[in-house]
Every structure is written in structure tokens, then in C-alpha cells.
Write a structure and sequence with these properties.
- There is one protein chain.
- The protein has 288 residues and is an alpha+beta fold.
- The protein is built from 10 helices and 12 strands.
- It folds into 2 domains: 228 residues, Hsp33 domain, CATH 3.55.30.10; 48 residues, HSP33 redox switch-like (CBS domain Like), CATH 3.90.1280.10.
- The protein is 34% helix and 28% strand.
- Helix 1 crosses helix 2 and helix 9 packs antiparallel against helix 10.
């Protein structure tokens, strides 16, 4: 099933809900970065909410960057979010595998840690970027973003994120849900949403059952007004041309050393782990 993102209004259009399925893009991220299960779950959760946040931007040239560092062994999590709902991202240490002793579930909070911050940077194409930073609450990602929306953006929100990782390390189901109260929301809407959240299944479980994003929304809310569907992907705009431009920031002596000693060079994009090779002749052209 392809990855998608669906937006809707519920509770007589007083509440916004956005749901996405991100199984394929999370699996692609796992493969690209050779991630172990807990790292896959952590990055997958951030990619899922990042896709939702990117899709909320109004201009196609805007971009959201998420940066999380909770002091845990996974290090920093970085995700770029585009208005299309596409995302890219990485973690400092992809080889992390922790589980909770009592449940056996992947211990994302242990890997991420909770002694740090969640920072959201919005590039709106203006002179200065907008950024909001909050202290991490649990390191489990979902709770942390619910707190971010409420504390930093002043929008009461509920967030559900899930990534199911199989024994062979592959991601078999992943997705996210964001529920936000609009300014005209009523107390009865809050009560209804709280009751729904008490009984909701994990996102990864619903997606693993084969439910589409629209089906999930309509099963939770009987008055859902579907606004849009869009396909989403793991997407990195890097290219050899961009890497060539990066090389031109080096001094002529540094490039010449690459030619004389290394007979070329290789540059790796940290966002997607794509490797770009430059021959001696290509480096000489750069010097020219």
C-alpha cells in the first residue's frame, strides 16, 4: 500500500485531523541509514509527524526542520519536512536497539533521552526563520510533539505515532495522526476526543491491519469531512550538482590535494546517505 496523507475536519468542522501512513518511507530511511530497530522507530516517528507538519505549510517554497536531542545514545535526530508532505532525515547513531523489560516494546524514550530539547525551525522564505523550542517531556516523540503544539504554537493538540519493526529489522507499518482544536471548538469536542483517545489502537497496528488513512478517520469520527489526499515519500533534493557547488567552497589547494593524494573524492549526503564520486578530471574542471 502506498504512503499517503489525508486531511479532514471533524466535530462539525471545529476540529482538524491529519493522518498519514508512512511505512514505505520509513523502510526506505531504515535501508538508507542501516538503522537498527529502536533507531528506526525513533526516526520513523519523527518522519511521520514531520510529514504532517510539512503538509501544513501554505507555500510550496516553505520548509520545516525538526531537531531533537535528548541526551540519549541515539544523539541528534534531524528531519526536513516539505509542503508536499515528503520528508528526509537521519539520526546521529543509527545502530541503537533497546527494549523495555516489562513490555518488550522498543524503548524509543531510552534511545532518545528526555534531558534535552525539541526544536522546530520554519523557513517561510522571509529574512528570518521562525523557531520554537520546548523541553522534551518523555523522548517517546508523540507526547513531546503534543506538548510542542500546545506550548509553542498555542494549539491544543493530540499526537499519535507508531512504527512497527519486524524481527528482520524491516518496517512493516508506520504512520501518524494529529488532532487539533480550531478556535471555535467546544468543550463537548474536547470530551469526545478524549474518549476516542482512551480507546484508540496504536497507529502502527491500524495500518498493519490494512486500514487506509481515510478509513481510520471515518472510523473514529462519524461526521468527518475529507479535505484532501496526497501521496508522500522519503525525498532528498541532493544531487551531484549540489555537491559540486559544495566543493567550490574549498580552497584551490584543498582540491588540488584531493587530486594529487586521493586521485578524486567521494561526498556523502548525510540526509539520505547517497554517495557522489568525483574523478580527478572533474576536480580539475572545478579548479578551472
Amino acid at each position: 500500500m502506498k504512503d499517503e496523507l489525508v486531511k479532514a475536519l471533524v466535530c462539525n468542522e471545529r476540529v482538524r485531523i491529519i493522518v498519514n501512513s508512512t511505512t514505505n518511507l520509513c523502510e526506505e530511511a531504515r535501508k538508507r541509514h542501516d538503522m537498527w530497530p529502536t533507531a528506526s522507530a525513533a526516526l520513523g516517528r519523527v518522519l511521520s509527524i514531520g510529514s504532517i507538519m510539512g503538509s501544513m505549510q501554505k507555500n510550496e517554497h516553505e520548509k520545516v526542520t525538526i531537531q531533537i536531542n535528548g541526551g540519549g545514545p541515539i544523539g541528534t535526530i534531524m528531519v526536513d519536512c516539505f509542503p508536499s508532505g515528503d520528508v528526509r532525515g537521519f539520526v546521529s547513531d543509527p545502530h541503537q536497539f533497546y527494549t523495555y523489560n516489562d513490555t518488550g516494546k522498543l524503548a524509543v524514550g531510552v534511545a532518545v533521552g528526555n534531558q534535552g530539547t525539541l526544536k522546530v525551525i520554519k523557513d517561510l522564505g522571509l529574512k528570518d526563520d521562525f523557531s520554537g523550542t520546548v523541553a522534551l517531556q518523555t523522548g517517546e516523540i508523540g507526547d513531546d510533539f503534543a506538548y510542542y503544539f500546545t506550548a509553542s504554537e498555542q494549539i491544543p493538540s493530540a499526537v499519535s505515532l507508531g512504527v512497527l519493526v519486524e524481527p528482520d529489522n524491516s518496517v512493516s507499518a508506520a504512520g501518524g495522526m494529529l488532532i487539533q482544536l480550531l478556535p471555535n471548538a467546544l468543550e463537548e469536542d474536547i470530551v469526545k476526543i478524549e474518549n476516542i483517545l482512551k480507546n484508540i489502537k496504536p497507529m502502527s497496528e491500524m495500518i498493519h491491519e490494512g486500514k487506509t488513512c481515510e478509513q481510520i478517520i471515518c472510523e473514529l469520527f462519524d461526521d468527518a469531512v475529507i479535505l484532501s489526499h496526497q501521496d508522500i515519500h522519503f525525498y532528498c533534493p541532493c544531487s551531484k550538482e549540489h555537491m559540486s557547488e559544495a566543493l567550490t567552497t574549498l580552497s584551490l589547494d584543498e582540491i588540488q590535494t584531493m587530486i594529487d593524494e586521493d586521485h578524486g573524492c567521494e561526498i556523502t549526503c548525510h540526509w539520505c546517505d547517497t554517495h557522489y564520486q568525483f574523478s580527478e578530471d572533474e576536480l580539475r574542471e572545478l579548479i578551472k
